[in-house]
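Q: Given only this backbone (100 positions), what sequence would you predict?
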């Protein structure tokens, strides 16, 4: 039951902290970028990137934990928030639109 969960936000899906590399590209472009995934839920993602991405941008992302236990996860996301978090570091939040 949602009311018994021990977190402040009333979300449909719990957020899990994750420590994994993320690779992302803009659909239709050849250049890929890397970042660090901080947390993940069924419908959202937060990661650190080395460049500011525009809100509303779609990205194809791959999260690879480098573990034999888990396959890399691939998804299409939409950027909803970008905040500076240091020199050439941007905390980026996105909505997962589709799993691949």
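A: Predicted residues:
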């Amino acid at each position: 039951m949602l009311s018994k969960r021990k977190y402040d936000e009333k979300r449909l899906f719990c957020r899990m902290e994750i420590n994994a590399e993320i690779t992302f590209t803009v659909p239709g472009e050849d250049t890929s970028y890397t970042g660090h995934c901080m947390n993940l839920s069924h419908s959202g993602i937060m990661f650190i990137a080395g460049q500011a991405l525009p809100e509303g941008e779609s990205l194809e992302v791959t999260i690879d934990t480098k573990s034999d236990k888990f396959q890399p996860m691939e998804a299409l996301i939409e950027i909803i928030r970008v905040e500076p978090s240091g020199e050439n570091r941007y905390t980026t939040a996105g909505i997962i639109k589709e799993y691949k």
